[in-house]
């Protein structure tokens, strides 16, 4: 059997290595800020000599968010990350 994804709209932003600008202002959507405040998105340093890495707690567990990944807010408000190449093949920008 073959299946095709239903056309649903999701919100997303591309992770560029940070969530705030140099002045400490958030530049991600409000739901990204809320997810960070609620520790759904969180930084963790794996080793003391490395930069902290961003993680997202998804329905399937905690996942590392790599530079360039998209953080997606699903239809039920759940968050997950998608590699840029997969995201760009699977999703298209909605113009309203």
Multimer state = single chain
Figure out the total of helices.
Answer: 2
**Main sheet makeup:** 3 strands, antiparallel
Shape: globular
Structure class? alpha+beta
* Radius of gyration from CA coordinates: 14 Å
3D architecture notes:
The protein has 96 residues and is of the alpha+beta class. Helices cover 16% and strands 28% of the residues. The protein has helices at 30-37, 84-90; strands at residues 11-14, 41-44, 53-58, 61-65, 70-73, 79-82. Strands 1-5-6 form a three-stranded antiparallel sheet. The protein has a three-stranded antiparallel sheet with strand order 2-3-4. A hairpin with an 8-residue loop joins strand 2 (41-44) and strand 3 (53-58). The longest helix is centred in the middle third of the chain and has 8 residues, at 30-37. The termini are far apart. The mean pLDDT is 92.
List keywords for this structure.
globular, three-stranded antiparallel β-sheet, 28% strand, 6 strands, alpha+beta
Topology:
Layout: E1 11-14, H1 30-37, E2 41-44, E3 53-58, E4 61-65, E5 70-73, E6 79-82, H2 84-90
Antiparallel strand pairs: 1-5, 2-3, 3-4, 5-6
